[in-house]
Design a protein that fits this description.
With 552 residues, the chain is α+β, with helices and mostly antiparallel strands. It folds into 4 domains: 198 residues, no CATH class; 186 residues, Immunoglobulin-like (Sandwich); 120 residues, Sandwich (Immunoglobulin-like), CATH 2.60.40.10; 32 residues. The protein is 16% helix and 34% strand.
């Protein structure tokens, strides 16, 4: 009977139960460390849970006893009965002395019913690891290894733990999940265990919504890496974390008691955070999205007045719980999307020509990296987006655009349509600090623009598009000018914007009154030539006729 139990144990636990962990994306002189490199840069330590004797004719364990690192079997069994998921399966084991061989066989009888990498075997691995590290440090062990392998000196059932001491700022690596390994060496004096380091890498991306308009070469009406918006116009950002599936049907996330992610988002001085919209979890392809309620995340805001950078940190303490609530298996991968609304403020960097911008925004993701230590977090590289806005410079002149002819006191309003109706008006408010005008999205009426003593009335913070400038108040003694079409066309990405159109506009008023005569060479002069020529021809005809009459 004992041999049958042992055979079941070996059959269930012969291979590595699980080798999965989370990796840290990072920059390394514009290259990534390969999976092969990851394998070479890890240190491991092994702990013996059970040991036994290997028969020469049949490579199975017999005479199984507690391993050398289970120094207090009574305490181990007591704690095992209270373990999550599996504890109840050991309640029937009633032993006055856990070291007794019969008690060990009862424990093995339970374990032998499990299968590789099922819920029970993973829960047992978690329990053993936490038990051995219950005081913060593991018991002594001289079974160590590295370079993706470890040498086991004798037969038994072992827990292998990744103990790599990563340097500060080393974001290439991740801790392997702890492993359960059955070592049945029959001939060798030692057994070399090869550790296949299976890496999954969470990523994060920040996107910004860009409205569609027919003059903007990059506006798609969707989220992307860059956008242009008017000052004070509400728009949305998205923070998208991709949690990949474990490789080879792996169950990396199950080795964690909880799996934590934290979005660390920074807004430039020219952007103001307005409100959090949604937090959602979905399949890895983004389908079947479900909302994560505010009971499962925390939002910490560090907001400042315009001109100073602000930040938000949204933390989800246990993504596993959120996935379960959404009916998802986190081991299949998942996408977490945070959406919030913001706007450009009066301190936003404004483009008058092509180039860069200071309206940069970024996010990085912190995430669980060590299944042994739930508080161990590492982070991804930053993901950046940029938001552009533009300034329209207008100058009013009398008669012509000669310096010194600048005209003050002309009134104007800006419109989005050529009919210049009230519904099409772009409402503006005057900035006290610099005298410019910026878009206004409130309910009050906007300000009428007036040219100053230098003829200037500039609009700061416009989206790309087509606008119409209408003169609403004409200075005395001057005629009103015709409506002016203004086009701002922009092509942009996360690093640069190219501009075309008429961002600098000249408006000229002519004096009122007087008569405008035809210019020389015009139709008036031609009429004089025609009439004069006709008179001359008539005079010649009369002269010839008179002479003929006299000759008769």
């Amino acid at each position: 009977m004992m041999k049958k139990v042992i055979k079941k144990l070996l059959a269930a636990l012969l291979a590595v139960a699980m080798v999965c962990a989370m990796a840290i994306p990072a920059f390394a002189f514009e290259s990534w460390e390969t999976e092969e490199d990851l394998n070479k840069n890890h240190d491991y330590i092994a702990f013996q849970i059970f040991k036994g004797v290997i028969s020469k004719d049949n490579p199975t364990l017999s005479g199984v006893t507690w391993g050398s690192h289970i120094t207090n079997p009574d305490d181990f069994l007591k704690k095992l009965k209270d373990a999550p998921i599996i504890g109840a399966q050991f309640h029937s084991i009633d032993a006055t002395d856990a070291t007794d061989a019969a008690t060990v066989q009862k424990v093995l009888a339970v374990i032998s019913k499990w299968h590789d990498s099922d819920d029970d075997s993973i829960a047992f691995a978690r329990f053993v690891c936490h038990y051995l590290y219950s005081n913060g440090a593991a018991p002594d062990s001289d079974i160590v290894g590295g370079n993706s392998s470890i040498t086991i000196p004798e037969a038994g059932y072992y827990l292998i733990v990744d103990t790599t001491n990563f340097s500060n700022g080393d974001y290439y690596h991740a801790y392997n999940s702890f492993l359960l390994v059955n070592v049945p060496q029959a001939v060798q004096t030692s057994y070399n265990v090869t550790i296949n380091h299976k890496v999954v890498k969470p990523t994060v991306e920040k996107k910004v919504y860009d409205n569609f308009d027919n003059q903007d070469g990059t506006s798609t009406g969707d989220f992307g890496s860059s956008a242009d918006h008017a000052i004070n116009e509400p728009f949305q950002f998205q923070l998208i974390a991709k949690l990949p599936a474990g490789r080879d049907e792996g169950r990396a996330y199950d080795y964690y008691d909880k799996y934590t992610v934290c979005f660390n988002d920074t807004l430039s001085a020219g952007i103001t955070f307005d409100n959090l919209d949604t937090v959602e979890i979905a399949n890895v392809d983004g389908s079947d999205s479900k909302e994560i309620t505010d009971t499962d995340y925390t939002l910490v805001k560090d907001l400042h007045e315009a001109g100073l950078p602000s930040s938000i940190k949204l933390s989800i303490d246990n993504v596993k719980k959120c996935a379960d609530a959404a009916g998802l298996d986190l081991n299949d991968g998942a996408t977490i999307t945070v959406t919030y609304t913001a706007h450009l403020n009066e301190k936003a960097y404004v483009n008058t020509v092509g180039g860069g911008t200071d309206n940069k925004n970024s996010v990085y993701l912190e995430y669980s990296n060590n299944p042994r230590i739930s508080t161990s977090l590492d982070h991804t590289p930053e993901s950046e987006v940029r938001v552009y806005t533009y300034q329209l410079n207008n100058t009013k002149y009398r008669d012509d655009d000669t310096p010194g002819n600048e005209l003050a006191g002309a009134g104007f309003r800006l419109y989005s349509g050529k009919d210049c109706t009230k519904e099409q008006e772009i409402k503006l408010k005057k900035n006290i600090t610099d005298g410019t005008y910026s878009p206004y999205f409130g309910t009050d009426a906007g300000d009428e623009m007036f040219s100053d003593e230098h003829g200037q009335f500039n609009v700061k913070g416009l989206d790309a598009g087509t606008y119409y400038l209408r003169e609403t108040k004409t200075p005395d003694d001057y005629n009103a000018c015709a409506d002016k079409e203004i086009v701002i066309s922009a092509t942009h990405d996360v690093n640069h914007v190219s501009l075309s159109g008429n961002l600098s506009t000249t408006i000229i008023n002519k004096k009122a009154g007087g008569i405008t005569l035809p210019s020389t060479g015009g139709i008036g002069t031609t009429i004089f030539y025609v009439v004069g020529g006709g008179l001359m021809v008539a005079a010649i005809v009369l002269l010839v006729t008179k002479k003929r009459m006299e000759n008769k």
